[in-house]
Design a protein that fits this description.
Oligomer: single chain
Helix content: 10-25%
Mean pLDDT: 72
Shape: rod-shaped
Protein name: DUF4878 domain-containing protein
Order of helices and strands: HEHHHHHHEEEEEEEEEEEEHEHEEEEEE
Strand content: 15-25%
Organism: Leucobacter chromiisoli
Keywords: Membrane, Transmembrane, Transmembrane helix
Strand order of the largest sheet: 1-2-3-4-5
Largest sheet: 5 strands, antiparallel
Amino acid sequence: MESMPGTVDPADGADDADGAPGTDGAADAAGAVAAGPASPAVPASPDRDGFSLGLPSSAPPRGLSPSPGLQPSPGLPKPADLGFPAGGFGREAGAAPKPPAAPALPEMPALPETPALPEALPLPETPAPAAAGSPSGAVSAAPTAAPTPARVRRAGVGAGVGRAAGEAGRRSLIRGLAVAGGFVVLGILALSGAVGSLFGGGGGGAAGPEETVEAYLTALSEGDAGAALAGIEAEARGPLLTDEALAESARLAPLESVEVREGADGDGPTRTVSASFALGDRRVFRDFTVREHEEGWRVVDGLVEVPLDALAPYAPSLNGIPVGGDTALLFPGGYELALGVEEFAVPEGEGLIVAGDILEVPDAQWISPVLTPEGEERFREMVRESLESCLAETSITTECGMNVDETVDDGYRVIDGAVQRSLTETGEAALDALAPVADSGEPGSVTAYDYLDIEIRLEVERDGERRTGTLMAPEGVLTPVVDFTASDPRVTWE
């Protein structure tokens, strides 16, 4: 192929400067480019003042050296032979690869044996230590259930307190045994502290604030007034703080489903414990205040005071037990109100008092006793008897009214002892149908406002002349009143 000016024939690059073939001859020919197809020649444009007219040309412009071109790439070097054996390392050719063996774990030293305690102090069984050589962190094969946090305590405090105290005692005892020297003494002290706190010693007792409230409510639900009184702070006494009252309460509104919230509010010797329980078909939610004493925690506000001073004249009783005062001191529970005055009764539907919370004291003050049918009949009988006694009087005046003036018209003087009084037919019918009314302003008082028509005949005298006649428009009968709360009820006329 014909060479072009300024180029090198590719065949010449086969020999280097030393004439040795196959070495870097291409690199020795500076400015050489690889031969390629020649560009077609373009006629040269006439020069004007030595400048090119800008027309393309394959020849280099005058005055400039030819372009050296690009150096050919030497290519990637052949990788060196790393010398891997055909069959791989550590196995014969064609054999299946083996997994690497696990490194052996170091053996663990055996745990020291727990010294035995004297026979006078039996220890709870201690789990056997792990065998020597077991890997660190090994666990027992038996699954351990994840503890569930109990947010609500339910009735049955005795067993729970015993178990908690026992576990605490055992843990303290084991920790005492781990101390070198004097471990038996420490274990005995820890165990005795747990037992002492369980029975109320140790400055606070085994039962904490929550357990104290739970035990108190449990005693009430079981009808044990003595146990309940032992759990309250004050040395309370009263006719209704008895097993008899609790037994009737359990019939009327049984105390059930006791729940005590875990975690008492406050710190120091006084705490607040939230609890709830059922009283019959009613759910009671309330807070109890407990205070720490030398003998343990005690409930401060476990009793409920129900004021009954408005009903005191009627001799009220609760669950068949006379209250005997203006205020009833009660355990939480249900109580049936009754009155000791036979002529009166509690209105229907208002006799059950459910005393659960001191902040929700039943409104016994607003109960208005009603006269019973037997009371109404007795009132009529007493009024008739008293009125008949007055009608039999012949004097000018009586305690029932129907009084007569000493003189009448025309100067006639009424003869004392000659006055005759009687009920008319209309009056007799009114007396039979007398309508008693309980006086709301006077507890136990009953009255009647019926008009009783009467007739009065009398003898008069003027200048030695005596006459008999009927008094026109006589004074009427007074209003009868009976106080049935009196020790000896009588009819008075007002």
